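task queued by scheduler; priority normal; single chain, no ligands, no partner chains; default sampling; output format set to structure tokens
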Amino acid sequence: MQHFTKYVILILSIASLSANHPAWAQSVDTYTSLATYNAALPATSIVSHLEDFSSVTTNTSASQTTGDNWDGFSVVAAGTSPYGSAGYCPSLDGSFFSTPTACMDYNAFAPNVPGLVGAFAEAISGGGELTFTPTGEAIAFAFDYVDWNDTDGSHLTERSAFRVFLSDGTSEDIDSPPLSPDAPIGFLGLILDDAAISSGVSITSIFWYGVTDELVGLFNIRTIDIVRMPVLNLAKTSAVWDPLSSGKLSLPQEEIYYTLTLENHGNGATDPSSLFILDDLPPDLEFWNGDIDAGGSETFPDIAPIGFQQLVGTGVSFDPATDLRYSSGPTSPTDFDDCTTIPLDGSFRSDIRYICIRPQGALTYGTSSPTIEFYFRARIR
């Protein structure tokens, strides 16, 4: 969960504060080795979970009602297969005839580790299913397995498969591993692509179901949760104020038109009403404390010294009557409450040293980089 943060943005002394489109077919990338899976994960803003089932000390059936909670996910079984019901084994190479669940000593590749045995049945039978539900905002899921898609007693066949459900309402079927007699240990990792992660998509559940009857050993289940944080970049640009296009230059007694552009390049939104933008005016400028549109075209609806637009995205508002203040003190304010209100007087003010801006709402996130801009005028002394 994101903690409430106040984002203080100082003009010309900017630091990035670190912490779209919906998923479509093939927004889930697959990996068959732990090394390539780890290399493909985001480098920052993630929390890793590993469930090795080390707390399993006896054969236990998996819940078929409320689910069992593990590190980073919960799992619920449904129905039974000819091998019995899904459950946990203290060692996957334990006796196949163990109760209440069957381990996998019939397969020479079964490891001596605790794990979950998925007992799958033909889909038409309505039983033998597993559903994994991440407990966080998961962007990746991975596991080791043994005996997935081997012989059914007479020929090689795909015996079980699974589907990944995403938070944008889509789902994707994941290719099963190559068919192999007495299938050996393998690895499968799933990671959402960058576009899906950036647009806020996550894995909501993974549904594993039978195609024919099969018993699969699962161990070392890994989930990766994203920690969504904003990354704010602020730029300040200027141009000579020349509404009549008369060829004015940047000379004393001429005006400069400033633009402050704030973008969120991160994977999370700012906290509501947490932005505080502070502009330190140099001593050779006099702030125009009148209507920003005076003498030019009517661009902004408010009669105020500061103009505002949300160029990309929605959710941010600015009312100069309540969200604009100033400071004439020798030191930089650290909070909007350190600044004071100065009535609009239609004059150039040499006493204003700092402009204090406190927009309302949250600057959202996404591949389009939500952007807001502020505008003001000042005269060269």
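post-processing summary
- The radius of gyration is 30 Å.
- Residues 1-25 have pLDDT under 50 and may be disordered.
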